[in-house]
Predict the 3D structure of the following.
Amino acid sequence: MVEIGQYHVLRVIKELSFGAYLDADGTEILLPKKDIPENMNIGDSLKVFVYKDSEARPVATTRKPKITLNHFASLKVTDINKYGAFLEWGIENELLMPFREKPQFLSPGDHVVVMLYLDRVSGRLAATSRVERHLRKIADESLQEGDEADLLVYEKTNMGYKAIVNQMFTGVIYNTDIFQKVEIGDLLKGYIARLREDGKIDLTLRRAGLDELSSSKEKILAKLAVNKGFLPLHDKSGPEEIKKALEVSKKTFKRSIGMLYKEKKIEITDFGIKLI
């Protein structure tokens, strides 16, 4: 079955004056004439995006939309009427964001971060700005501290900015870690700075902070190796004691041993840390 809002590879079965018909598991889907590529022939397979037109009929396009089903993007508002806001999304028909799914303050020309969903009543694609309800708030094994990540900034808070991580999770970039202009709707390359004990995700835009952690971890492992696998340091140790032994801050030390513990390279005891 051909899913609305997704890309599909479909075979051309006939061509008429107004377009071509593609075979979608026994159903014919129209590819309008304006979207037909040059030198297309009957029997060719085309990669197309399938959506519904103004009369709720499935239709294909070779144009590339700015968003696909269950994904997130920042789109421009073109109009607002009694039905909701209309968004430009890279194909001919504008995308509706119903009033119940849009922010209170929004005007034509604004950009808004949305998710594309399939309205079960109308069977049409629609957008919602209530993105957080569709994001995972707890990290899973697909994320590791230090990983590079694709970020889409969607909300400003007192602490910093919330960002969509790899089109799946929500995380936070803190004000103390922002050294560049950041705006809602920005697509950024960032890094997983910390996976907290409660599963929430701290993000960073700087590689430098992660390099510092990597260096700190190497120092700790090297010290353990020359001290018979044990160091009398733990999260209750004083900052000066840690700095004297490892030349790192207590904050960096705590994050480093937390990462090493998750990597199953050390044990943390009441008396110090042990090499596994």
